[in-house]
Structure formats: structure tokens, C-alpha cells
User: Fold this.
Amino acid sequence: MARALGVGGVFFRSRDPKALGAWYQRWLGVEFDGQAVSFSPAAMPPAALTVWCPFAADTKYFDPAKRDFMINLVVDDLDAALAQVKDGGAEIVGAVQEADYGRFGWFIDPDGNKIELWQPK
Assistant:
């Protein structure tokens, strides 16, 4: 049987893809080429991984966003990343949470997407 080996991309609609890409480049340091951002597996911290996780249709975890998805981005400094996106006009939602596998924080981006930031231990 053929198997899925990992997430090859996250694709979604945006009101202004170039402006949203430029926003992420400015406030989270991603290398936006005008169309997409590519993350190299070698750039990930040793404890990081990609998770594919369906949630129940009535989950509140994505609130206050109205979208049916949430994107998780791995960061090297959660506190600095949250401060940067806030400076960029993002709405910070919820308090930072700590787990055995790292720290998490959330914001709403300029398109209304809820983004989860994860700093692995």
C-alpha cells in the first residue's frame, strides 16, 4: 500500500496573497518568494515535528477565528515572535501555555486566520 510520508504544504485562500506573504516575511522572518514559503526540514529543532490532526466539527480550539483550520508554525523564540506579530497588528489570543513538548501562543493574522506558534523544548 502507498503511504503518506508527511505534509507537503499548507494551501489556503487569501484576500491578498502577496500582502499576507509580505506580512509574514516582515513579522516572522519567513523567506517569502512572492508566491510561497518553503521550510527546510533541516531548519527544524530536533524535538519538532509536523502533526496532522483532525478536530471535531464543534471544537472551540480555533476560536475566535471563523475558519475551519488553524496553522501551527514552529518558532525559535515564542515570546519574541508574539511580540513581533503584535507589533505588526496581529491580535494575540489567549495566554501562553506550556506543555511537556514546548510552549504555545496564538494570534489572528491580517486575513483572520488563527495561527498557533510552537517553541519546542
Notes: The CA atoms of residues 90 and 109 lie 5 Å apart. The chain has a mean pLDDT of 94. Residues 17-120 form a domain with the 2,3-Dihydroxybiphenyl 1,2-Dioxygenase; domain 1 fold (CATH 3.10.180.10).
